[in-house]
Design brief:
This protein is of the alpha+beta class and 171 residues long.
């Protein structure tokens, strides 16, 4: 019986002990990184209002792993995103944005989540959640973005019949 307990304890403790410890930040380091992220978000908003697609897209990681969710529409990969977003800034020079950072949450020394709210001349209420990673050269780039607004279309039904079962109605 003691051997079984040892094996069980080892099976539980060993994998946990082998995980990399999360990087800890001092308060000063966290504050400094949060300031960096806030500055990046400010420069992004400036680029958006300058209608400079090259500058705007320079804030996004250029990779196939990039994900954008606008309301309920998904875009996978930066190439597709660039093909949609770049022309928007060229074709809509009258649209301006106001953005306020609600929260910067540092996940590690090289990753953060930023929550913003704001508006544009097209929409009175916009909401963003952006995940950023710090590159080896020190730049913070957006790797995932979710943008929504009150007039979003509802998501399409995932159920093949077009109706989702209610609680307790499933098989």
């Amino acid at each position: 019986m003691p051997a079984l307990r040892f094996l069980l304890a080892s099976a539980i403790v060993f994998p946990w002990g082998c995980q990399a410890a999360p990087a800890t930040l001092t308060s000063a380091q966290a504050d400094s990184l949060a300031v960096e992220v806030r500055e990046v978000m400010g420069r992004l908003t400036e680029a958006m209002n300058a209608h400079d697609p090259e500058r705007v897209l320079g804030f996004y990681r250029d990779t196939e792993a990039f994900v954008y969710l606008g309301c309920t529409d998904l875009m996978f990969g930066s190439a597709f995103f660039k093909g949609i977003i770049g022309p928007f800034y060229v074709n809509n020079p009258e649209v301006t944005f106001q953005r306020e950072i609600l929260r910067v949450q540092l996940l590690s020394p090289s990753s953060a989540v930023v929550t913003l709210q704001g508006s544009s001349t097209d929409s009175p209420a916009l909401f963003w959640t952006q995940v950023l990673t710090r590159e080896a050269d020190g730049r913070w780039l957006i790797t995932h973005e979710h943008e929504s607004w009150p007039a979003c279309d509802p998501p399409p039904s995932l159920h093949p019949t077009g109706q989702m079962p209610g609680p307790g109605e499933g098989p």
